[in-house]
Amino acid sequence: MTAFDAATEARVSDLVLGDRRHGLPADVTDARFWDEMYDSREQIFSGNPNPVLVTEISGLTPGRALDVGCGEGADAVWLAGQGWQVTGVDIARTAIDRAARRDSRVTWVHADWTVTPPHAEAFDLVTVHFVPIPRRHARNLIDAVAPGGTLLVTGHDLSDLPAGHIPGFDPADYVEPAALAEQLGDGWTVLVDEKRRRAPDATPHTHDRVLRATRDPI
């Protein structure tokens, strides 16, 4: 999933506030939340792959890749173009339907990865960009990486956000890339764990957090 533009961020905030007005919990891992967001516009994202993905993955030997929270499919399509065998998974049916119309080389899966975890040690690359990772389910992503494989996670640096930026969203419920690195344990090598300045855009974000780690081969 690529970063939100200003209009999309406003739409996300509207959806959360709407839930709160009706006494419902604001849950950014809920399918209804994302379906409403994608249904609000014909296209949410630019259609370009995340720059971090291109920078960090270019040059790796292609294998089996899992794009978690693939959205409208830009990252998965780019990976397929590099020779990867890609599975893109997203909780939003509208997003998956749009992605499937873009490229038939990718295996598109409509599913909630927190409910149906990916198979353990099944992927040479697990990539997650700007997708909320619930703390209690973070291990699902780590375990999906095969020996010798790569985990790449990008998220907004939360210090950029003013308090209450998205009402109802509690960062403590989710794992940032740096915290995910601490969960890897033995058998992993962390290659990148840093705060990285992002290209100027219309959002309030100025920095991202990037984690790239490899699992030791057997």
TrEMBL record:
* The keyword Magnesium is assigned to this record: no
| Domain (Methyltransferase): residue spans on this chain | 66-149
Q: Which InterPro entries match?
A: Methyltransf_25 (IPR041698), SAM-dependent_MTases_sf (IPR029063)
A Pfam match: Methyltransf_25
Source domain of life: Bacteria
Q: Name one GO biological process term.
A: methylation
- Check the record and name the SUPFAM superfamilies matching this protein: S-adenosyl-L-methionine-dependent methyltransferases
Q: Which GO terms describe its molecular function?
A: methyltransferase activity
**Residue ranges, annotated region (Disordered):** 199-218
Q: Which keywords, in A-to-Z order, does the entry hold?
A: Methyltransferase, S-adenosyl-L-methionine, Transferase
Its name, as the record gives it, is Methyltransferase family protein
Q: Which organism is it from?
A: Actinoplanes lutulentus
